[in-house]
From TrEMBL:
Stated name of the protein: Type II secretion system protein L
Gene behind the chain: gspL
Membrane disposition: Single-pass membrane protein
Record bears the keyword Transmembrane: yes
Protein's organism: Pseudobowmanella zhangzhouensis
Pfam family, one: GspL_C
Amino acid sequence: MSEKLIIRLGSHVQESIFWIVWSDAQQEIIASGELPDASALATLAERAGNRPVVTLVPGRDVTLTSVDLPARANRKALAAIPFMLEDELSDDIDHLFFALGSKQGNQQQVAVVRHQQMQIWLEMLSDAGLSSHTMLPDCLAVPLHDEGLSLLQLGEHWLVRQDHWLAHEGEASWLMPMLELLAKRQEQPLQLHCYSPAPQFTSSHIHCITEPLDAPLQVLAQHYADTQFNLLQGEYKTKPVQSGNWRKWRLAASLTGIALLASLTDKVLQITALDNEQQTIQTQIVAEFKKALPNNTRVGDARQIRSQIKAELNRLQQGGSGVSVLAMLNQLGDAFAQSQVKPQLIRFDADRAELRMQASAADIAALERFKQAAQRAGFSIEQGAINNRDNGVISTLTVRS
């Protein structure tokens, strides 16, 4: 997808958060801003919609290093990396997460971050209802030049990119003296490609090259993909997560389907009295019932199962937003049937009495038919951006009663 939501988290929940919705196709900013702290991160959930979420984290929390490995390193060699780096690190390796980058010759690139810090970042996203498949240090998203270093200011911190796997993020109080010291060690002036207004250096041995002074997060959005690296690997690899509302709706839909099957079975048995067919369908119903409700140990015949399903549906309807979910989906049945629009992801907001879903359709006209049919049923519809996918289109729809 050409549009992405890029979020730069802080080291802790009280730190400000930068964000941007960026279009790769148009090479332009759709929206951007700064949040005071992680408690406001949930306001980006609607902006995320069906856009991929890319997470940048402070480079000061990630140690970029490398180890010498054989050309054909096996799993045992990779598993030994923490012990090879143990003497270089101040923390106990049991408290650290080691993420593998690319391999240049015999040099295996490694990013090291505390497990506690990874959990803080992931909890920030999870608490806000956001899911991200890409996470990398912000300093690795700074543009890389063949000659010289790149310098960019983000909030109160500066990002410096020296090489493919050599980058820093920190405060000017120690980062600028480090650059001046680096310049003194070179015969030629140190070239700095500045993507922010250049700071004042005391050394005349530093030559600042002014690059386009775009918004800092725009620069990072344009270049983060140049580095093929992701912190979300191994035990932190993103897994598909379904919201509680979606799981509840799916269970209700599953139970409704089983109830219909049980009802059909009852009618077939009244007409046919074929023992073999009865036994086959009865077995199928029991299997589906156990799959939907694995904790229910009392399973009877088709009629008893139908009663149990009705009782379970009543329990769901009395559990907060369940009644609204089922009622709205039931009333939207004709709209789905007439338009052939198919919901892919559903979220229900009980407080706002609205149903937000990502839906696919054959074309834009099908989405319009759904919208008109839903309006005739008494709902108001708010439609988000429409994107082409495979042989159809996909869009975000907000349905309010």
